[in-house]
Every structure is written in structure tokens, then in C-alpha cells.
Write a structure and sequence with these properties.
By secondary structure, this protein is mostly beta strands. The chain is built from one helix and 29 strands. The protein starts with 11 loop residues before the first strand and ends in a 7-residue tail after the last strand.
Length: 369
């Protein structure tokens, strides 16, 4: 990916009028001055991500001193133009110089004047390049003083903020907002499929912050080869539906940074799937010495990283065993899987103090939760 060059025209240039007056409706020709806001990277190297959070994939990077084209700010993240696509960087490593700030993404800007001139610069002395009408929604890039910089028919324009109403937009309702069975869970992994018979799944993660649910991650995943189970049975190649707590994290390598209890897999580790064994649905070590007749080898690439889904904790014989969230992109024997990158991101995000749960369900049955 071609890197952005330091010094490219990526400075957010804003303009403001010295006095308010009539703005762009007409009237006095007011003297204007330019106010430039520059957003510069302060970290030696800063990842650019596909979404506003560290769980989103990295699409590139910027370096110390580089100037960014900031579109807006959401929480502690700047939304930027990056190589002609949208990216996000942490505002903790970006220094903003100047007085203007990018608008929040959750704000609607509506014209209140019957006709409002759009000007080529931030002042009534600049030429009119068009107009907008009452009730029209504007695409605001930034604000400086009494002027909004907007996107207007594919070009940059300026309108007086005296004739624009800025109002907060209600955050879209998340699916977890309607769940009534979450109790004290403040982290949710939601695994959904279009129906019972598909092996393709959508994985979403949510976290409650200051009493409000926020979405953290969305990823593609896979289920058992035969999809979801109406009633899970040992060896049916189906993934169980339901809400479950999250158990031990595991992997064939060192702890990737999860806060969950972590167990490194060895060559002798197995998960007992013998329904007749007293150790059914538990993690054990070889040799069997007559304790079981069948067990699943844990030292395999699919278990490079993952965690135990606490399914069939009563260890009811024949009800199913070894139900994990692990690495995989094709299908599983009854677990849930996604790419290694996403598994690691979710492991790093999970926090046992937030009582995380995983919900697995066809979309049509989410009202159960």
C-alpha cells in the first residue's frame, strides 16, 4: 500500500468570519481571515484501522510528523481520509493545532433559512457557488467560528452557521439493546446465522460502557458443518444455540494478551468426548490408562488460539463436548470459528471482570434473549 507522504495537502484548512453579521444570506461584506487546523501524528508509527477501535483490522500506518486529513471525531478516534479510503486513528497520538474541531459523527446539520448561499470561502466577501434550502441536510466537514465547511456537489463550500441547526442524532439501536437476559454481563459475543442449516455465521462483539451498549467488532465466522443444532448431540457436526459463559482461553503459543485464565496446549493435551467416561467433556492429558476410549487431540492448528464455550457444564452424556471458539474459516465439528487475527483480537478484548457471555442463535430467534 502506498504510504502517505509527509507534507501532502492533507491539512484541514478552515475559515472563519471576524464578526457574525448576516452570513451568506447577503448584506455586509465582512472581512474574513483563514484559520488552519493541522492534525499531526506524534507516535513513531500509528496504525490506521478500518473502524474506531483496536479490534478492527489494520489497513496501513502513518508516521511521526505526518499530517492527516481529518473528517470527524468519534470518542477517542479520528476518522481520516487515507489513500482515498476511510480509516481511523487514535486521537491519543495525534496533535491538533488550531481552534477548529471536526464535528461529531452523530450530529445532523439542517438548513433553517429559506435559501442559504454556499460560498467559496468563509465570509460574505467570497463568491456564491450555489445555494441550499430550508430543511436540507448538510454534509459538514468542520466548523470554525461562525462558518461551516461543507461538501457541496463534490466540492468544498462554506455556509453561515447562523442559519444551520446542529442537532444530535440518536444513536442507532443495537440488537443487544433489546436483550433481556444479559444480567450483569457487560461484554457480549453474538454469533448469528440466517437459519439453522447454514454453516456461515456473523460474529459481533458488544460492550456496555457508562450504561450504554457499544459495538466493538464485526467479523465473518463459521459454525458446525451442518449449522446450528435444535438439540445438540455428540458427533452431530452442529453448533449449539443458546447463551453461555466463557471459560479458559487456550493456545499452542504464549498468552497473546488476554485477561482470561490462559492455558498453553501441550502435545499430551486432549478433550475427552467419550460419553461413557467419568471425565466426559473435560480437558485431560494422555495417556488414557483406561480412563476414556476416545478424546480429541488439542495440539492442532485450529486451536492455535481460542477459548472454551461453557456448554454442557453438567457433562450430560451424549449432549456434546469440546465446544470452543477457535481459529477456522471453513466449517467446524460443532464449534464456532473465525480468522486467527479476529480470535486474538477478541481474546485481548475479553475481560472476566465484565462477565462476558456468548450468544449463538439464528437471527429469527434473537427475541429469546
Amino acid at each position: 500500500m502506498k504510504k502517505l507522504m509527509v507534507g501532502m495537502a492533507l491539512t484541514a484548512t478552515l475559515a472563519t468570519a471576524v464578526t457574525p453579521g448576516f452570513g451568506s444570506i447577503g448584506g455586509n461584506q465582512e472581512k474574513a481571515y483563514a484559520a488552519t487546523v493541522t492534525y499531526k501524528v506524534t507516535a513513531s508509527k500509528l496504525n490506521v484501522r478500518s473502524g474506531a477501535g483496536t479490534t478492527y483490522g489494520i489497513i496501513g500506518s502513518v508516521v511521526k510528523g505526518q499530517t492527516l486529513s481529518v473528517m470527524s471525531k468519534s470518542g477517542s478516534w479520528y476518522k481520516i481520509n487515507y489513500n482515498s479510503r476511510t480509516g481511523y486513528v487514535s486521537s491519543d497520538y495525534v496533535q491538533a493545532s488550531g481552534t477548529a474541531t471536526p464535528p461529531a459523527e452523530s450530529t445532523t446539520y439542517t438548513v433553517t433559512a429559506s435559501t442559504l448561499n454556499v460560498r467559496s470561502g468563509a465570509g460574505t466577501n467570497y463568491a456564491s457557488i450555489g445555494s441550499v434550502t430550508k430543511g436540507q441536510k448538510l454534509s459538514v466537514v468542520s466548523k470554525s467560528g461562525s462558518w461551516y465547511k461543507i461538501n457541496y456537489n463534490g466540492r468544498t463550500g462554506y455556509v453561515s452557521s447562523d442559519y444551520v441547526q446542529a442537532s444530535a442524532t440518536a444513536s442507532p439501536k443495537l440488537v443487544v439493546d433489546s436483550f433481556k437476559t444479559l444480567g450483569n454481563a457487560h461484554q457480549v459475543i453474538l454469533v448469528t446465522a440466517d437459519n439453522y442449516d447454514t454453516k456461515s455465521a456473523k460474529i459481533q462483539t458488544f460492550e456496555k460502557v457508562d450504561g450504554k451498549w457499544k459495538q466493538v467488532l464485526t467479523a465473518n465466522g463459521v459454525l458446525g458443518q451442518k449449522g446450528f443444532a435444535l438439540s445438540k448431540k455428540e458427533g452431530d457436526m452442529e453448533s449449539p444455540t443458546g447463551k453461555y459463559t466463557i471459560g479458559t482461553a487456550f493456545g499452542r503459543y504464549a498468552n497473546p494478551g488476554t485477561k482470561l485464565p490462559y492455558r498453553k496446549i501441550t502435545a499430551n493435551d486432549v478433550w475427552v468426548d467419550d460419553s461413557k467416561s467419568s471425565l466426559y467433556n473435560t480437558w485431560q492429558q494422555k495417556p488414557a490408562n483406561g480412563r476414556w476410549t476416545s478424546a480429541e487431540n488439542m495440539d492442532i492448528p485450529a486451536y492455535d488460539y481460542g477459548f472454551v464455550i461453557n456448554y454442557n457444564e453438567s457433562r450430560t452424556p451424549g449432549k456434546g463436548s469440546a465446544i470452543f471458539f477457535h481459529v477456522g474459516t471453513n466449517y467446524t465439528a460443532g464449534c464456532t470459528a473465525t480468522s486467527k487475527e479476529q480470535v486474538v483480537s477478541i481474546l485481548k478484548w475479553l475481560n472476566p471482570e465484565k462477565n462476558p457471555v456468548i450468544i449463538q442463535s439464528p437471527v429469527s430467534e434473537l427475541d429469546k434473549y
